[in-house]
Amino acid sequence: MLAASMPLARKLFLRNQIAGALCALLALGSSIFISSCGNRKNAVSGTIEVDEAHVGPRSSGRVEKIFAQEGDRLHEGQMIAQLEAPELRARRELAAAQIDTAIRDADAGGQRRQNAGKKSGSCADED
User: Which domain holds residue 108?
Assistant: First the structure.
């Protein structure tokens, strides 16, 4: 390829020029290839299954605290939000008061029966 009559310095210079040009072409080709790979859009078709559930409160109320954000993985029974429900609180307090009243009435009825039994002599003393 290179003539035998050329001086050694000239041969080395040409060889370096050719090697440099090949490296430049390789770098240019690589950069074009790499930049075009990023712009490729692959189209595929298929079905994606989503594990999603719609949740709702058992009763109405105002959201007081939120314990989970969109995208969080949740477990069964995990609290998502806390509601302020004054109606439910009032119903719970009423039920507790009714239970207390029923217990007092039962205790008083038992005491009355004991006293009546003592008076009639049909009940033994518990002392």
Answer: 83-122
